Amino acid sequence: VQLQAFGGGTVQAGGSLRLSCAASGRTFSSYIMGWIRQAPGKEREFVAAISRSGGGTAYLDSVKGRFTISRDNAKKTVYLQMNNLKPEDTAVYYCAARADGSRLSGINWNYWGQGTQVTVSS
Questions:
Q1: How far apart are CA 67 and CA 101, in angstroms?
Q2: Which of 14, 21, 37, 60 could form a disulfide bond with 91, CB atoms 3.0-4.6 angstroms apart?
Q3: H helices of 1-122, where?
Q4: Contact 118, 51 (CB under 8 A)
Q5: Please, what sign has the CA dihedral across residues 82, 15, 75, 44?
Q6: Which pLDDT score, from 0 to 100, does residue 10 have?
Q7: What pLDDT is attached to residue 69?
């Protein structure tokens, strides 16, 4: 599967952004999908994941209540709605796909998109 993320940008603290990740291929619904971010000088960090059906989700503690992950299997797209953004959310955000198992966390994924920059100014 090939993934392309877009929707990043620069916003002020308290603002919102919606990231999208479009997938190619015919088996999008067979993948667990996730968002992982990497801030400058820091390691990659799990942000959110969603199960194949969309019925299960998981989040990094610091984004719970502010971020929402969702997917549309018919459109082969996963979304990350980010509200009440904070400067510490500044990072490159990657979408990723996991083919095996049922884990909704971690930074080890089978497929990665190219990343989209999110910058939150204070």
A1: 24
A2: 37
A3: none
A4: no
A5: negative
A6: 98
A7: 98
